[in-house]
Amino acid sequence: MADTRSSVVPEEIAQFGAQAADWWDPDGSERMLHKLNPVRLAYVRDMVDQHWQADEHSLRPLEGKTALDVGCGAGLLAEPLSRLGANVTAIDAAAPLIEAAKSHAEGQGLEIDYRHSAVEALDGQFDLVTSMEVIEHVAEPQAFLNSLVARLAPGGLLVLSTPNRTAKSRLLMITIAEGIGQIPKGTHDHSKFITPDEMKPMMAVAGLSVIDCEGIAFSATRGLHLSDDLSLNYLIAARHA
């Protein structure tokens, strides 16, 4: 059973769990995540290469390392992390998403330890901890971040992404994207978005040192892409202070 001490908001879990059936459909309810995932993965790969001084041409830079993906959904990031060589544990508080993730990974011939759990209920430590578009959905962001850090092994790397709380993110992600159905309606609560200036002190409280922060921007010509512009969404990498 998932632990609910700090991170799980039942209404959020129910909404995401209801989308499990077509999570892997690039034209389905999570099509925006399919567009976002390559951008997130490119950033994770870059941070991995820098943090462990890995060969940027290696196909498996995470060989011999453990990875934990928190709020994994149906496995959009967990699967490529496995292909990069990591021994992956991936958790989500929505049971239907874990079932969808297990089924898809089996079809791909991937061995991923998927668990229906909140991070607070998990034991062990991992070299790489990722949590993408999750912290803006939890009940207590600082407590959630502290729990992520508790799972981070000494010398490990933490990478998370989240929307910035700006007028631009409200317009593009809620008014437009949710309005036209690119993102399921009700996915986001703009008041729960966290700015980079708020996130960095939270990381310090959790015992982390931020090593990088990069934006995810959108343009008509390039689509979603990594950028110095943090006003829409951003990725942040950190290690133990």
TrEMBL record:
Signal peptide: none annotated. One of its GO terms (biological process) is methylation. Pathway: Cofactor biosynthesis; ubiquinone biosynthesis. One of its GO terms (molecular function) is 3-demethylubiquinol 3-O-methyltransferase activity. S-adenosyl-L-methionine binds at residues 40, 71, 92, 132. Keywords: Methyltransferase, S-adenosyl-L-methionine, Transferase, Ubiquinone biosynthesis. It catalyses: a 3-demethylubiquinol + S-adenosyl-L-methionine = a ubiquinol + S-adenosyl-L-homocysteine + H(+); a 3-(all-trans-polyprenyl)benzene-1,2-diol + S-adenosyl-L-methionine = a 2-methoxy-6-(all-trans-polyprenyl)phenol + S-adenosyl-L-homocysteine + H(+). Its EC number is 2.1.1.222, 2.1.1.64. CDD domains: AdoMet_MTases (cd02440). InterPro entries: SAM-dependent_MTases_sf, UbiG_MeTrfase. The keyword Thylakoid does not apply. O-methyltransferase that catalyzes the 2 O-methylation steps in the ubiquinone biosynthetic pathway. Belongs to the methyltransferase superfamily. UbiG/COQ3 family. This is Ubiquinone biosynthesis O-methyltransferase.
